[in-house]
Design goal:
heterodimer; A: 327 residues; mainly alpha; 15 helices; 71% helix; B: 279 residues; MetI-like fold; 14 helices
């Protein structure tokens, strides 16, 4: 149904009715088609760039798409579930690698999301009451989010260099916290580096969202609470947190999906050779596909990742939806 | 709101810690871009011993940064214009019409945002190769391929946000326009769009930022002639040297367009993103 048909023509004055005859309102055929015409460009492009490649990707996960077949990929032989079998078999190198990178990604995602939320919340609460310079601080906090990802990550890469980097200079030379210079982009510290860089880029988004959430809470609730003798911490726990629940539900889900499928951070930070401790799953799949040129196997791993993300998202929505209905 | 002493201390601590965290890389980026090469190759110093603007001059010669800049600008501007135009039409349909398939459309489009790029990178590449072979339309290694890829990246979010904006504009306004003789498209361009201008600005910035900063597809879909900044900046690392001062200078220069655009329209952007997030 269209806007036009929702109007009651009987109410229109005669002059108006004459004017409306010129509009497309009286051609119900066009009115019915119009929303589809409006959607057509978006649908076509989504089909071409997202939906069809996804379906092709799923098909690829069932064929033996190695370098011998890549030139004529539609003729690749059927592999059935073999790619999946290899991907989930933890007793071979491929399955073991996938499981390890999955574990790394779970830790990376969980720590980054929690810390991003905490920093965003701390800053949003601190910036709530107006003070001189508030908008300048807010602008500064949003800069990491505005910078192109690669510009920020390249800077971190430079800062995390062992001998010439600013991070070791601060930790070893300025503060004396560490006695010898650790490698940050190799070995066991790689995950710490990844989390730090991802956090730097991501927390402003949490801050932005939580700040808006805080502004939508009516101030008189706080006044009433402080008249009743509730302190700042109790006000935060009993008013702020519950009021932010709908915002938090969306925010945490979005942060999880972003961090779990983050590719830019490891790719720009480590180059093409990722250290095992910082081997995030999307980067692992990319490398596994392009190093061995076995795209069927890479596609199977991608589909497994997607299924995992869908299950987590679905479960999250069901659990949080139920809880909020009970409340 | 009454500010206690405790709150003031809390605020000072939070602002100091987070301020340092945010500023440190920005400071390193700016000061390192003003150092000669031997300084950035030695131990880190807080202040450049020899201030120089040479990195900002040399960076254009070490790699063809000018060409990458032009490529990134064309790709990002075109993707932004197309994405915003397409999103406006779709959001208008979603916001103002009730039609069959409406919820299928919104759910599907939104869920495409969830897919990791790795998932459709290779299939998309193969599809582009097939389009080239069968239709003769060159999409791999051209700006056009990147433009149509990038415009879809920001599309779901733009549609979602604009539809929210359009919903907040009273229907009586465009109904009045219809009564005055505008068609639905007239109502969109004369009434709904002007009222939703902050939302349009916000999605335009978002689209531009998305395209300007994209790394993964740019690294697979580009050849030397259409290479964008996100890939081009890596070429300051050679076998023998890493020109860190020039990398920092280039990173600074490529950040300026987005950061300025973001800061200028920050109010609209923040309002737009948060309106979507809070709803």
């Amino acid at each position: 149904m269209s806007v036009a048909t929702e109007q009651a023509p009987a109410e229109a004055a005669p002059g108006v009715r004459a004017a409306r005859k010129r509009g497309p309102d009286h051609r119900p055929g066009l009115s019915r088609k119009l929303p589809y015409l409006l959607l057509a460009p978006a649908v076509l492009l989504e089909l071409l760039i997202h939906i069809i490649p996804m379906l092709v990707g799923i098909w690829m996960s069932f064929v033996k798409l190695t370098k011998f077949f890549i030139a004529n990929w539609s003729a690749a032989p059927w592999a059935g579930l073999n790619n999946y079998r290899v991907a989930v078999d933890v007793h071979n190198a491929v399955g073991e690698g996938l499981l390890k990178s999955f574990g790394v990604t779970v830790v990376f995602s969980a720590v980054t999301v929690v810390l991003a939320w905490c920093l965003g919340m701390a800053a949003a609460v601190a910036l709530q009451p107006p003070f001189k310079g508030r908008s300048a601080v807010r602008t500064l906090f949003l800069v990491p989010y505005a910078l192109p990802a690669y510009a920020g990550i390249l800077t971190w890469n430079f800062m995390l260099q062992r001998d010439t980097g600013a991070v070791n200079h601060v930790l070893v030379d300025n503060l004396g916290i560490l006695s010898d210079r650790p490698f940050w982009l190799l070995g066991g510290n790689a995950l710490t580096s990844l989390i730090t860089v991802a956090l730097w880029k991501l927390w402003p988004f949490a801050f932005l969202t939580l700040m808006a959430g805080l502004q939508s809470i009516p101030q008189d609730i706080y006044e009433a609470a402080s008249v009743d003798g509730a302190g700042t911490v109790r006000q935060w726990r009993n008013i702020t947190l519950p009021s932010l629940r709908p915002v938090n539900l969306v925010l945490v889900l979005v942060l999880f999906l972003w961090t779990f499928s983050d590719f830019n951070t490891p790719y720009v930070l480590f180059g093409t050779a990722q250290p095992p401790a910082g081997d995030l799953i999307t980067f692992h799949i990319y490398n596994a596909s392009f190093l061995t040129w076995n795209f069927g196997s890479g596609a199977a791993m991608s589909v497994l990742l997607l299924i995992f993300l869908m299950i987590v998202t679905g479960a999250y929505l069901v659990v949080t939806g139920r809880r909020s209905r009970r409340a | 709101m009454r500010e206690t002493r405790g709150f003031k201390i809390y605020r000072a601590v939070v602002l100091t810690v987070l301020g340092l965290f945010v500023l440190l890389p920005l400071y390193v980026m700016v000061t390192s871009s003003l150092k000669p090469l031997r300084d950035v190759q030695g131990a880190f110093t807080w202040w450049p011993s020899n201030l120089t603007l040479d990195p900002f001059v040399d960076m254009w010669k070490t790699v063809p940064l000018g060409r990458y800049f032009v490529n990134s600008t064309i790709v990002s501007v075109a993707a932004t214009v197309a994405s915003v135009a397409i999103a406006i039409l779709a959001a208008f349909a979603v916001s103002r019409f009730r039609f069959r398939g409406r919820s299928v459309f919104t759910t599907t489009v939104l869920s495409t945002q969830m897919f990791p790029g790795v998932l459709f990178l290779l299939p998309l590449f193969l599809i582009f190769v097939n389009i080239n072979n069968s239709l003769g339309l060159q999409l791999v290694g051209t700006r056009l391929g990147l433009i149509i890829t990038y415009l879809t990246f920001s599309l779901p979010f733009s549609i979602w946000m604009l539809a929210g904006y359009f919903d907040s504009i009273p229907r009586e306004l465009d109904e009045a326009a219809l009564v005055d003789g505008c068609g639905p498209m007239g109502a969109l361009t004369r009434v709904v769009l002007p009222a939703a201008r902050p939302g349009v600005i916000a999605v335009a910035i978002y689209s531009f930022m998305t395209a300007w900063g994209e790394v993964l597809f740019a690294s697979v879909m580009t050849t030397e002639s259409n290479r964008t900044l996100s890939v081009g900046l890596r070429q300051y690392s050679t076998q023998t040297n890493i020109y860190w001062n020039q990398i920092m200078a280039a990173a600074l220069v490529v950040s300026i367009p987005v950061v300025i655009g973001f800061l200028l329209a920050q109010r609209h952007f923040v309002a737009g993103v948060t309106a979507g997030a809070v709803k």
